[in-house]
Amino acid sequence: MARAVADDAAAGGGRPGGREEHERPRPRARDVGLAIVALVVVAAAVFRPLLEDLLDQPAIAHWATVFVAIVVQAMPFLVLGVTISAAVAAFVPDDLLARALPSRPVFAVPAAAAAGVALPGCECGSVPIAGRLVDRGMLPAAALAFLLSAPAINPIVLVATAVAFPGRPEIVAARFLASLLSAMVVGLVWARTGRDELLRITRGRKVDEGPPLSVMMATAQHDLLNAGGFLIIGAATAATLQTAVPRSALDSLGGSSVLAFVAMAGLAVVMAICSEADAFVAASFTAVPMTARLVFMVVGPMVDVKLIALQAGTFGRSFAARFAPLTLLVAMASSALIGWWLL
Amino acid sequence: MVVALTAAGGTITLLIGTVLLRLAVTGTYRRYVRVGMGPWLAVAGCALVLLGVLTLVRVIRRDRLDADPIHDHGAGGVGWLLLAPIAALLLVAPPTLGSFGIERGATVDVRAGPAVFEPLRGAGPFPMTLLEFGQRAFEHAGASLANATVSLTGFVAAPGAGGFELARYQIACCAADATPVVVRVMGVFGDVPPADQWVRVTGRSGSVNGDIPELVATSVVEIATPDDPYE
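^ Those are the sequences you sent over. The predicted structure of the assembly is below.
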């Protein structure tokens, strides 16, 4: 187990392709893994007074609270996403999705983006689902469009937006349209120019073989640990940035609408707020122009530090390095367009 | 390719499930997320405990049968990182957000409240949220407060001579999106409580010139951290 951990860490935490020859069962390897778990728990218990002293420092306590809050709040959604993803792996036959969806990207991408309406939840759940859909033979561009649209345009998020901006239905409409537009454009751009070979996904791979329920369990276990681990990286990054960068720095930008627009897009990336909550935070920036608050709500569910970590873990680093900037640019452009039109 | 399950992966899953269940049962989760999340945390916790136990049972069974060679990949590298919040939450639960974030974050703008409030009737003190107090104070220069006595609960930030800032966070989803509401408390005689001390302040609305509403205190009582620390 210790060897497997080292290999995985070197490969960015994913499954190292083509390393099969190294994968010899090691006697007692499992005991090493268990020993590490036990060691961490015991060490934490021994150093408990030290941890408590650390939490007396206000900045560290603030960091720890935000970090734990992001993890705790994401867990139910991650469990939901992993369950759906595992069910897809276990019960959806190979190539069913490929046959069910139109094969041409021009039709498949908008259809998949619009299907995002049906998945209630936030962004943490949609990453493992999209990974599994590609796995099951869905056109990658279509799965990516779904990945981007699902957390942004589902009913829960739209209702939250309506509650956060009472009496302003045009903001809900603008968010819906700008998010859907971004998802479709990114999907189509990826279909034209994207490099699917960057996606570290093997078609038809199964995490385990056997009866559907045992496949489902093995997949759930695998996806949970993988996505969960990257969620921790993202949550720690977001907590660090939130503790280090004072949000009040933004209020001084209220005067310049272009600066505020760019700053709010950047803030959405570093704050990594759940898509069900970002409307309330956007509403709290009263000094910032409405279009800048729109870009905050459009970028947030599609690109943020937590999501980049999750995407890198699911699809590979070189994929995330191209996909995240592309998505950010498209989301900003479509927010500017829709904001200029509607707000 | 067969990736088998490992005892370590199952144990980590079981531990996360236990931590979530414990947060839900003890109510500690209210420090991090909205009160309404409790049942969902319990459901997620149960699901993870179940998954962890099933995984362990399967690993042990396979061990006995020694049926096929195990590829030890269950914890998938980064999965180990899940031990960080487990260790943090099993042993020391981080506190609720305190005064550290007050001067760093944008505060809730209470000037953008509902148009008109019903005037307060009857004898006070009227308990209300900091948000409601602020909105009332700015609505027609505090007409609906009509010099009534109100009682506000929050924690102390920026304590100074004769007063402090009373603050409480609003959260929409979790503590990562917390935005504070701040009320300036004036006219405190004697010792001002230290920063982060939770207090219940009774008093009347003061001037409404700046961005922050003012409360002229008649009494300041130190209290324990409330069960639901966010508004």
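The radius of gyration of chain A is 21 Å. Chain A has 16 helices and no strands.

Shout if you want it in another format.
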